[in-house]
Protein backbone atom coordinates (compact mmCIF):
# COMPACT_ATOMS: atom_id res chain seq x y z
CA UNK A 1 0.00 0.00 0.00
CA UNK A 2 1.42 3.35 -1.05
CA UNK A 3 1.54 6.10 1.57
CA UNK A 4 0.13 9.46 0.63
CA UNK A 5 2.46 12.41 0.85
CA UNK A 6 1.75 14.62 3.85
CA UNK A 7 1.40 18.18 2.55
CA UNK A 8 1.97 21.60 4.10
CA UNK A 9 -1.15 23.57 3.23
CA UNK A 10 -1.16 27.31 3.87
CA UNK A 11 -4.59 28.85 4.32
CA UNK A 12 -5.23 32.59 4.48
CA UNK A 13 -7.78 34.02 6.89
CA UNK A 14 -9.36 37.17 5.44
CA UNK A 15 -11.64 36.47 2.46
CA UNK A 16 -10.61 32.83 2.57
CA UNK A 17 -11.53 31.36 5.97
CA UNK A 18 -13.72 34.43 6.49
CA UNK A 19 -16.25 35.78 4.03
CA UNK A 20 -14.84 39.30 4.24
CA UNK A 21 -11.63 41.18 4.90
CA UNK A 22 -11.22 42.22 8.53
CA UNK A 23 -9.50 45.52 9.26
CA UNK A 24 -9.83 45.84 13.03
CA UNK A 25 -10.16 43.66 16.12
CA UNK A 26 -13.95 43.92 16.31
CA UNK A 27 -14.33 42.76 12.70
CA UNK A 28 -11.87 39.93 13.37
CA UNK A 29 -13.83 38.72 16.40
CA UNK A 30 -17.16 38.83 14.57
CA UNK A 31 -16.12 37.61 11.11
CA UNK A 32 -18.43 35.08 9.50
CA UNK A 33 -16.58 31.87 8.58
CA UNK A 34 -16.62 30.63 5.00
CA UNK A 35 -17.93 27.16 5.88
CA UNK A 36 -17.01 25.58 2.52
CA UNK A 37 -13.36 26.43 3.17
CA UNK A 38 -13.56 25.55 6.87
CA UNK A 39 -14.93 22.09 6.01
CA UNK A 40 -12.23 21.61 3.35
CA UNK A 41 -9.54 22.47 5.92
CA UNK A 42 -11.06 20.06 8.44
CA UNK A 43 -11.07 17.28 5.84
CA UNK A 44 -7.42 17.87 4.93
CA UNK A 45 -6.46 17.95 8.61
CA UNK A 46 -8.28 14.65 9.12
CA UNK A 47 -6.09 13.25 6.31
CA UNK A 48 -3.05 14.24 8.45
CA UNK A 49 -1.93 17.16 6.29
CA UNK A 50 -0.30 20.11 8.08
CA UNK A 51 -2.48 23.21 8.10
CA UNK A 52 -0.62 26.50 8.45
CA UNK A 53 -2.77 29.55 8.90
CA UNK A 54 -0.95 32.33 7.08
CA UNK A 55 -1.98 35.93 7.13
CA UNK A 56 -0.82 39.41 6.31
CA UNK A 57 -2.48 40.65 9.51
CA UNK A 58 -0.26 42.56 11.88
CA UNK A 59 1.23 40.45 14.65
CA UNK A 60 -0.60 42.52 17.30
CA UNK A 61 -3.74 40.63 16.18
CA UNK A 62 -2.26 37.26 17.13
CA UNK A 63 -4.52 36.65 20.15
CA UNK A 64 -7.79 37.59 18.44
CA UNK A 65 -6.79 35.45 15.45
CA UNK A 66 -6.15 32.37 17.61
CA UNK A 67 -9.40 32.95 19.51
CA UNK A 68 -11.38 33.16 16.24
CA UNK A 69 -9.82 29.96 14.90
CA UNK A 70 -10.60 28.11 18.14
CA UNK A 71 -14.13 29.53 18.33
CA UNK A 72 -14.88 28.06 14.91
CA UNK A 73 -13.05 24.77 15.53
CA UNK A 74 -10.58 25.33 12.71
CA UNK A 75 -7.65 22.92 13.09
CA UNK A 76 -4.13 24.17 12.45
CA UNK A 77 -0.54 23.11 12.94
CA UNK A 78 0.81 26.64 13.23
CA UNK A 79 0.08 30.29 12.46
CA UNK A 80 2.34 32.52 10.40
CA UNK A 81 2.03 36.27 10.09
CA UNK A 82 4.14 36.24 6.94
CA UNK A 83 3.94 34.39 3.66
CA UNK A 84 5.87 31.13 3.47
CA UNK A 85 6.78 28.18 1.25
CA UNK A 86 4.20 25.39 1.15
CA UNK A 87 2.81 22.66 -1.09
CA UNK A 88 -0.61 24.29 -1.51
CA UNK A 89 -1.65 27.86 -0.73
CA UNK A 90 -5.36 28.63 -0.39
CA UNK A 91 -5.67 32.41 -0.49
CA UNK A 92 -8.02 34.90 -2.10
CA UNK A 93 -5.00 36.13 -4.09
CA UNK A 94 -3.93 32.66 -5.40
CA UNK A 95 -6.59 29.95 -5.40
CA UNK A 96 -9.74 31.90 -4.67
CA UNK A 97 -12.12 30.01 -2.35
CA UNK A 98 -15.02 32.18 -3.47
CA UNK A 99 -14.66 30.60 -6.92
CA UNK A 100 -15.80 26.97 -7.10
CA UNK A 101 -12.66 25.90 -8.99
CA UNK A 102 -10.71 25.61 -5.72
CA UNK A 103 -12.70 22.47 -4.87
CA UNK A 104 -10.75 20.66 -7.60
CA UNK A 105 -7.93 20.49 -5.05
CA UNK A 106 -9.78 17.70 -3.26
CA UNK A 107 -9.73 15.62 -6.44
CA UNK A 108 -6.05 16.38 -6.99
CA UNK A 109 -5.17 15.38 -3.42
CA UNK A 110 -7.11 12.12 -3.62
CA UNK A 111 -5.25 11.19 -6.82
CA UNK A 112 -1.79 11.38 -5.21
Description:
With 112 residues, the protein is α/β, with parallel strands linked by helices. It has a single domain (8-98), classed as Rossmann fold. It is 36% helix and 13% strand. The chain is built from five helices and four strands. It has helices at residues 13-17, 25-30, 35-46, 62-71, 104-110; strands at residues 8-11, 50-54, 78-80, 88-90. Strands 3-2-1-4 form a four-stranded parallel β-sheet. β2, α4 and β3 form a beta-alpha-beta unit. The radius of gyration is 14 Å and the shape is globular. It starts with 7 loop residues before the first strand and ends with a helix.
Question: Using only CA atoms, what is the Rg?
Answer: 14 Å
Can you name the CATH architecture? 3-Layer(aba) Sandwich
Note the total helix count.
Answer: 5
- Could you please say which CATH topology applies here? Rossmann fold
Low-pLDDT runs of 5+ residues are none
What profile does the largest beta sheet have? 4 strands, parallel
SSE succession = EHHHEHEEH
Count of beta strands: 4
- How would you name the oligomeric state of the polypeptide chains in this document? single chain
- Mind telling me the CATH class? Alpha Beta
Our count of domains comes out at 1
Give the rounded overall mean pLDDT.
85
User: Into which percent range does the helicity of residues fall?
Assistant: 25-40%
Q: How far is the first residue's CA from the last residue's CA?
A: 13 Å
Amino acid sequence: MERKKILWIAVDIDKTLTKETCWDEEQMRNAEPNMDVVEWVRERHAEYHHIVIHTARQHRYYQVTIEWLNKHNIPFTSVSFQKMPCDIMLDDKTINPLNSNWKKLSTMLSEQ
